[in-house]
Design goal:
The complex is a heterotetramer, with 2 copies of chain A (about 260 residues) and 2 copies of chain C (about 325 residues). Chain A is α/β, with parallel strands linked by helices. Chain A has 6 helices and 16 strands. The radius of gyration of chain C is 18 Å and the shape is globular. In chain C, strand 15, helix 8 and strand 16 form a beta-alpha-beta unit. Classes of the chains: A alpha/beta (about 260), C alpha/beta (about 325).
Amino acid sequence: MLITDALIIKQEEIIPGFHRITLSAGEAAKNARPGQFLHVRCADTLDPLLRRPISIHAVDREKGEVSLFYRVVGRGTALLADREKGDRVNVLGPLGKGFTMPEGNGGVAVVAGGIGIAPLYFFLQELSVIKICANVFLGAATKKQLFFSGGIEALGHNVFPATDDGTAGYYGNVVELFAQNLSDSVYGCGPAGMLRSLCQTIKKYNIRGEVSLEERMGCGVGACLSCACKTVDEEGNYRYSRVCAEGPVFTAGEVVWE
Amino acid sequence: MLITDALIIKQEEIIPGFHRITLSAGEAAKNARPGQFLHVRCADTLDPLLRRPISIHAVDREKGEVSLFYRVVGRGTALLADREKGDRVNVLGPLGKGFTMPEGNGGVAVVAGGIGIAPLYFFLQELSVIKICANVFLGAATKKQLFFSGGIEALGHNVFPATDDGTAGYYGNVVELFAQNLSDSVYGCGPAGMLRSLCQTIKKYNIRGEVSLEERMGCGVGACLSCACKTVDEEGNYRYSRVCAEGPVFTAGEVVWE
Amino acid sequence: MIPQNVGVINETKSKLAVKIGGIAMKNPVATASGTFGFGSEYAPYIDLNQLGALVVKGITLQPRAGNPTPRLVETAAGVLNSIGLQNPGVERFIGELLPGLACFDLPVIVNIAGDTVQDYGRLAARLDRVSGVAGLEVNISCPNVKKGGMQFGSDPDMAAEVTRAVKAGTDKTVIVKLSPNVTSIEAVAEKVASAGADALSMINTLLGMAIDVKSRRPVLGNVLGGLSGPAVKPVAVRAVWQVYRETGLPIIGMGGIITAEDAIEFILAGATAIAVGTANFVNPQATMDVLSGIKQYIIENDVQDINELVGAAHR
Amino acid sequence: MIPQNVGVINETKSKLAVKIGGIAMKNPVATASGTFGFGSEYAPYIDLNQLGALVVKGITLQPRAGNPTPRLVETAAGVLNSIGLQNPGVERFIGELLPGLACFDLPVIVNIAGDTVQDYGRLAARLDRVSGVAGLEVNISCPNVKKGGMQFGSDPDMAAEVTRAVKAGTDKTVIVKLSPNVTSIEAVAEKVASAGADALSMINTLLGMAIDVKSRRPVLGNVLGGLSGPAVKPVAVRAVWQVYRETGLPIIGMGGIITAEDAIEFILAGATAIAVGTANFVNPQATMDVLSGIKQYIIENDVQDINELVGAAHR
Ligand SMILES: Cc1cc2nc3c(=O)[nH]c(=O)nc-3n(C[C@H](O)[C@H](O)[C@H](O)COP(=O)(O)OP(=O)(O)OC[C@H]3O[C@@H](n4cnc5c(N)ncnc54)[C@H](O)[C@@H]3O)c2cc1C
Ligand SMILES: Cc1cc2nc3c(=O)[nH]c(=O)nc-3n(C[C@H](O)[C@H](O)[C@H](O)COP(=O)(O)OP(=O)(O)OC[C@H]3O[C@@H](n4cnc5c(N)ncnc54)[C@H](O)[C@@H]3O)c2cc1C
Ligand SMILES: Cc1cc2nc3c(=O)[nH]c(=O)nc-3n(C[C@H](O)[C@H](O)[C@H](O)COP(=O)(O)O)c2cc1C
Ligand SMILES: Cc1cc2nc3c(=O)[nH]c(=O)nc-3n(C[C@H](O)[C@H](O)[C@H](O)COP(=O)(O)O)c2cc1C
Ligand code: FES
Ligand code: FES
């Protein structure tokens, strides 16, 4: 866990509004685990004030590089997208608890909705290192938002696309598509509605599953309690967990959807 | 008077901390009069919030260009200095009341302290257009801060430097130097202390004189009354005048120094 | 094509009309007192006729010179000011400044301030006879003047007394401008409402100060000043939200409005109209940008009448 | 060379020592309650031993789950929060969290909050017996909890009553934390001082809110929240300035401190110590950056003892 003024190696606009930024951050690259995030200072002024949490999307340990894949939704991400190669961006991390790497030889599925592929891509990189081949269910509004399917196949995984408008793959909901192709364990990230239904599916079929959640963050390090998310433990006790510290990855069973 | 997103044609660091920025701003170039200023938005975020007033330093009417000469003293000017050729900067103006161009053939002097040469250079440009040759008293802390003396001579004026450390020209105060070389009318700009003593000299010798003042500004257009400066009229009535509207140039007799 | 466009614009226009007491505004966008001079200062930048209302700089019975300088200092996303109600006095306002506004087609609201309850009553009576004045905004909250301002606004009973004095002096619409520097803005609002106010405006500036670490002295000539700008918006929206729940009076909301979204936030909180203040310094066309953004919002969201949005966040 | 440097550093150190009631701080830099967890969260980023004092998250008698989400929203140069005092309760704090801090060489101040006067008294009595607690910061001003918080802080007599209850329960240093959401913070300060407070801290957050124009609903789960960060600094400096004039008690100043200059502004206004809050979120090393900037300032300005600067802007 550290703070760096990371040099921007590359800033790419994958499709309009969706950027990938590659940072030189050796320590972060070395320590990062899939599902963790960086807390990014998008501007040097007092407005916007707070950092923005962005998942670690890909890591090149040899080059000491970390990539983030992000969607421009507001001021912070817009300012980040304005930064160019050669600029520096202050990042804090890697932070949070990542995905549990699967062990043994059960089938592994990954379910991503839209920008939700961001952290899962890194997870898929690590899976292929330990020679696990996953079924990857990529959901998107439309064909051109099915990100990195080529790269994912190149990592040795199987891609099953689903689009809301039917322009590619399965015509409909990515969770439905997954439900038709269950596996022993599943790892999900995407919009809240999608994760909710993924968690329902996981419970219904009693499989192992983890999801990566989002909540508005202050500190990112567990100190301010702003990133609360309602969870329930095995004894049925409810509490607020910190997405930045106990998460962002939770088991499907822990998360309480309200 | 207008608002433009002016293109930056050039950004030069004359000596460390002192910048000249040249903007493409045809309308402003056409309408500007010496002593007027632009109200400059140095950042697009809410912090810093306000515009910064900067005098018009030079104008190229043919090219439609306006230059500003500024010292980096705080956040606003630092952000302005960060902007590069090809960027745009939002400016409002020309604003305020400038210097009265001298008429007839009395001797004209210009007294500038440090960055105070900024608006006076434009004044000297205009004097040379109407073929008036001025005695220019340039004061500075040290030799390398005697700005543009070559350019001023090239415009056909006589330069009399004065430095606090004696590294060039007269060893001492520029107002003292002027007092030893009086003329019929004098135009001054510089730090408050210097202007105060210039105004005393002007009154003492009963000559014509105008000075350009600074005050913290809000609107820049006369609406908020924040840029007040105490003045006295010919009948001896005191009031607060607006530096942005009744000024920044005032006659030496009007200004009340407290 | 042209007639069609005109139709759309007119339709949007009527969807934007609001009423503050007896004042009909063609749209909800007003100017905040003290930030827009007497209107003419901004005439080179915007068409004043497009404004919903013009609220002029605070006026007192006698001319005031104002506070010593510096009068303004920038803070994080905000501005501290201590102008000290510099103004030419009500007589010169009526004689010299008001006539210039007659050619514009918009309601002029005069912001008034006094040192005593009587001052307020006299100002109201004096302006009651003047045509070209649509209403009075009663500044009981200006924190810059030692006598008057602060005290009236921070005590509910005093605020009510001022309101009664003004109402007794005029039949024009009386808008009382509340201060946020109080323990309970609802309590002040309720008293002012019972005292007969036709509308409320809020918020005036937050009491603040800045110190220069080099000189080790307060920056403002007057030591204390009033904070405005985006920094105060959350406080202002909260004030509107609270007061909307308590009183039935129309509210002019202000405090840090820069964009149309900011304005809509105030409307959703319960403001019938809004005022743009500090933003004018940043962007002389801020009022017009806010207005066109509001138009876009109601078109995009298929809002039939802006009044539907007033207080909608409570529902 | 090395011994010389150490000499300089030690000298600077002793120049920085301040006292808040009975609490000796090696420098004036503390953490603001609720922004720094229980200290350990920031241990990977800074050496906690360098801090003047650690003020931990607000503790209540019973555990609290806290408010529904979202609990935080960014505003212009500020942050609105409504955490709702989520905490494990005083027993688990003493049993599980406090022991971890024993290895650090710094005074730990426990921020306490209650729903009733009795709660405060009981918390004080419970913590009185606990070693490793240097003092109590009494949160009478948290605007997030419906019962308690708001009311105690906004009424001078209630604030005094809470102070007396806490004083009765403990011999440790009692610091009362004032709310800015009042008509007269001096009035509250005076009553609290007469009730026996050893020191004051200010300011807690300003009551505010934000509305989402898309959903047309308040952003925070709890609707209202507390505003902190640079946006509020002018209000906080003003509060310290006013209270310093009225009471002789040492003050811990806070509200929007990001840089050493900000901290010095508070000290010049009358704060003996300062606390860094929201800035930690932006920069986990903010406390250390503020500290080293203060050191630089006193060296550059040839200040013999930081206490000379306290309230210097009044002179
Ligand atoms: C652990 C974690 C990992 C994330 N990883 C990624 C990623 O890899 N790629 C990516 O594009 N985004 C990711 N996000 C979301 C990202 O943090 C937000 O999109 C970003 O903070 C928005 O900042 P902004 O200034 O552009 O938008 P703002 O102007 O702050 O907000 C724009 C909109 O986004 C909403 N919003 C803002 N912050 C959050 C948040 N934290 N959670 C939910 N909604 C929010 C606001 O309500 C608003 O409607 C992640 C969030 C978390 C918590
Ligand atoms: C009519 C006018 C014309 C000017 N022309 C020029 C010019 O041609 N070149 C140039 O370099 N500067 C000029 N100035 C001064 C310039 O406006 C300030 O230096 C600038 O606003 C500082 O902004 P900042 O954000 O960098 O500094 P800040 O961080 O705002 O302040 C840095 C320091 O400057 C002081 N300061 C800030 N604004 C003013 C002000 N308006 N008047 C006096 N002191 C101030 C502050 O007290 C502080 O100590 C002019 C000012 C006026 C009013
Ligand atoms: C420079 C300045 C002068 C002001 N003068 C007055 C005034 O004369 N009367 C008044 O009621 N409010 C006055 N105000 C307060 C504004 O009308 C408004 O209530 C406040 O600034 C909040 O709005 P804003 O954040 O949009 O500026 C003044 C504000 C500023 C910044
Ligand atoms: C997320 C958050 C939680 C807070 N929790 C508490 C608390 O439990 N008790 C308390 O007295 N103050 C609490 N505060 C207020 C701070 O201690 C401090 O008074 C305020 O934030 C102003 O300082 P700042 O602007 O530096 O953050 C909290 C503030 C924030 C931002
Ligand atoms: S963001 Fe502060 S605890 Fe998670
Ligand atoms: S800056 Fe507003 S009146 Fe001059």
